[in-house]
């Protein structure tokens, strides 16, 4: 079996595990949101604001955050008051569905409505792996350049929602937002783009609203590179909590 065949077999196995996990979570009333971005995009700070807003509103949310090492992000997110767990990948540059399921077993609170998964900071490998999410969000800071979607078409082309972060720095960074929109829609026509700023709280309410809409079954944008496009039936596996 050649390298490409091995990779396809690995992805196919992951897709089956992800479909089973998605089904199990749905039966428990849980919606998973997968956050993808480069390192330093401001993803953790923004997620912390979203979790805090949910806690303030009495919405039962939880978060799983992934890194190669340290539990720094889990400690930061836990300040929101939401249940948080750290998943250390021991050098692996992405999360896989089996890792998520294993980490959730025996931990995920029974009343959770939305589970946010902060993926490893990387726009390459994580984009190929379905985790069992209902909503996939690609984030990019204004300091990263308008052509990022063209450089990482799989990450942005598989997103149900795109978020611009650190918009308070758009002026100093010389960020051309109209060009960014053009580039995003070149790889993912029609996807919604949300402006956000963790410092001011801009966009936080919108992100929480989109997650809750996904939980409530609102029709989602269908990206051209949808992470779970086939909808095949998979037999259910063991509960995750």
From TrEMBL:
Transmembrane segments: none annotated. The keyword Magnesium does not apply. It holds the Pfam family cobW. Residues 218-241 are annotated as: Disordered. Keywords: GTP-binding, Hydrolase, Metal-binding, Nickel, Nucleotide-binding, Zinc. InterPro entries: CobW/HypB/UreG_nucleotide-bd, Hyd_mat_HypB, P-loop_NTPase. Residues 34-194 form the CobW/HypB/UreG nucleotide-binding domain. SUPFAM superfamilies: P-loop containing nucleoside triphosphate hydrolases. Belongs to the SIMIBI class G3E GTPase family. HypB/HupM subfamily. This is Hydrogenase nickel incorporation protein HypB. The gene is hypB.
């Amino acid at each position: 079996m050649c390298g490409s065949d091995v990779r396809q077999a690995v992805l196919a196995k992951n897709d089956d595990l992800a479909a089973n996990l998605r089904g199990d979570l749905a039966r428990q009333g849980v919606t998973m949101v997968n956050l993808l971005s480069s390192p330093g995009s401001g993803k953790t700070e923004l997620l912390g604001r979203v979790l805090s807003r949910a806690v303030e509103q009495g919405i039962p949310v939880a978060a799983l955050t992934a890194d190669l090492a340290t539990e720094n992000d889990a400690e930061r997110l836990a300040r929101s008051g939401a249940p948080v767990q750290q998943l250390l990948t021991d050098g692996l540059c992405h999360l896989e569905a089996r890792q998520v399921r294993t980490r959730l077993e025996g931990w995920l609170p029974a009343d959770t409505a939305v589970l946010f998964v902060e993926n490893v900071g990387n726009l390459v490998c994580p984009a190929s792996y379905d985790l069992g999410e209902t909503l996939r969000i690609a984030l990019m800071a204004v300091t990263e350049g308008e052509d990022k979607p063209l450089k990482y078409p799989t990450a942005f082309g598989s997103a149900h929602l795109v978020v611009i972060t650190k918009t308070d720095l758009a002026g100093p960074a010389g960020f051309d937002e109209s060009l960014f929109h053009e580039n995003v829609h070149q790889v993912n026509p029609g996807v919604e783009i949300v402006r956000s700023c963790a410092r001011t709280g801009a966009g936080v309410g919108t992100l929480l609203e989109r997650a809750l809409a996904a939980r409530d079954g609102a029709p989602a944008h269908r990206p051209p590179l949808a992470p779970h496009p086939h909808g095949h039936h998979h037999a259910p596996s063991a509960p995750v909590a």
